[in-house]
């Protein structure tokens, strides 16, 4: 029996590669397909309203007036608020777990932070309605009158509103940022730390060096959290109040892009209002794909498991003898 | 010259200590909400978890009791549809990624999978609505299952790929040296070696999509009656929790908490299972 690969073997190999490769192509097509399907379905609204869609502040499906500014505003405001709260905590966790934690604590803590990401968003929403909102209302009532004159804290103490949404979102994105940032820190070569210590750095100074070394990846991790926050639907819609308005107030009930789709999609009375909602979805899709894509590239550029192996660095030229 | 500890050195040391403490505090801060969520779900959900909750049907407003039997069966049907779409496709795709890890297509597929993973679930819902609901003019279990399948696909691909990569390449080389084709080596040697991990990965992915609500709102919709028909709207645990949570009835709130307890229980169970299995696998394959 000859050990040389036969012609059929070659064909079988090729078939295997093409067959499984077709599925890899399918995965690429799905992401493109989602974009195309949404664009086609929202065409009516895109043509009719143009850019005015994103400047208008009135959303009234009954009279056929569709202005999506309040939703964009709510989505951006709640997401950045969440990131503001979540980033320091998440980076703290990442640093603790990768640099400081005692060995015995490490695995259990990783498990617990990942559990935070596994809790379904509907459960966060339920908890938000019945536990967080009453708590936020108490904070709002306790806010001194002086502060309430500021636009940031104006409005009646309803409980539901931007603050509650920001808090829930922050809880939900912390595990994402933390776990990616931890992977990134893990990928930093040990000799970076050793070099810092050899120069007499304290622990924090060494960590700062490591953070600086991994900065692109860490930015990527935070952006990944942003992508999550922008698209989060259920927990937000349950606590934000679903009131389309552009307001700086943390206490004001507002609305987000994902929330308006969740609330009004099944009630869209005519083609135009359906298309307007799909257009909001299309923009949400585009924003998240761009942000996720960028953050992936940033993360991959640092993390050891870069998909396309970076070109092997040329060895330093030998010292001229 | 003797080294002197200056005031500046002390400051640096103190600062370093402070940052270390702050990082530890960050961990505690993040675990507080986790503890609170689990505590409230247990406190309010467990008392409502009666036998009737698992066997009964939703009651009309004002009639206490009843349960979510239809919703639980609905969720099982939905994730079964999702799994039958995502598992075969996902595993085959992951095999391609591990067998040809450096091809340009692999790079693109990984990038696409990570991007699908990042697409907001509500947008996946719209996608399924346009592709499955509109042509048939009807909300259906199939549409919901399709939406969940799309969400599940990247999770299956990435976890399977990770697990396949853990299998030592000496196994593959051995198979190839015995004259196996690449496909045969993959399906009869590499995949079986990682199978326990892949099975748990799939279970975790199923648990993850079982907790999704947004993509179901306008695909599988909801159903207050017993239905297992794939072409009809179907109830699901998550949508039912949502409906009950935003309704003003005390009894419904209790049921919503009970539903949340069931969800959390499933998530906990599968997370712990996954953790034990992957750790065992890692220990087995560590060089």
Describe this structure in words.
The complex is a heterodimer of chains A (321) and B (287). Chain A has 321 residues and is mainly α. Chain A has one domain (44-302): Orthogonal Bundle (MetI-like fold). Helix content of chain A is 70%, strand content 1%. Chain A contains 13 helices and 2 strands. The relative contact order of chain A is 0.15. Chain B is an all-alpha fold and 287 residues long. Chain B has one domain (71-285): Orthogonal Bundle (MetI-like fold), CATH 1.10.3720.10. Helix content of chain B is 76%, strand content 0%. Chain B is built from 10 helices and no strands. Chain B has helices at 7-48, 51-55, 69-99, 104-118, 121-136, 141-166, 169-177, 182-210, 237-245, 250-285. In chain B, helix 3 (69-99) packs across helix 6 and helix 3 runs antiparallel to helix 8. At the A-B interface, helix 1, helix 3, helix 4, helix 5 and helix 7 of A face helix 1, helix 3, helix 4, helix 5 and helix 6 of B.
H/E topology pattern of chain A: HHEEHHHHHHHHHHH
Q: Taking Cα atoms only, what radius of gyration of chain A do you get, to the nearest Å?
A: 25 Å
**How large is the count of helical segments of chain B?**
10
**Which CATH class of chain B applies here?**
Mainly Alpha
The CATH topology of chain B comes to MetI-like fold
**Most extensive interface: pair and counts?**
A-B, 92 and 93 residues
CATH class of chain A reads Mainly Alpha
**Mean pLDDT over all positions of chain B:** 91
Alpha-beta classification of chain B: mainly alpha
Radius of gyration of chain B: 24 Å
Q: Helical amount among residues of chain B, as a percent range?
A: over 70%
Shape of chain A: flat
Instruction: Name the CATH homologous superfamily of chain B.
Output: MetI-like
Q: Which fold name fills CATH's third level, the topology of chain A?
A: MetI-like fold
What is the number of helices of chain A?
13
Which ranges of chain A are low-confidence, i.e. pLDDT below 50, for 5 or more consecutive residues?
Answer: 305-321
Q: Estimate percent helicity of chain A.
A: over 70%
**Main beta sheet of chain B:** none
- The oligomeric state of the chains shown is heterodimer
Query: Overall mean pLDDT score of chain A?
Result: 88
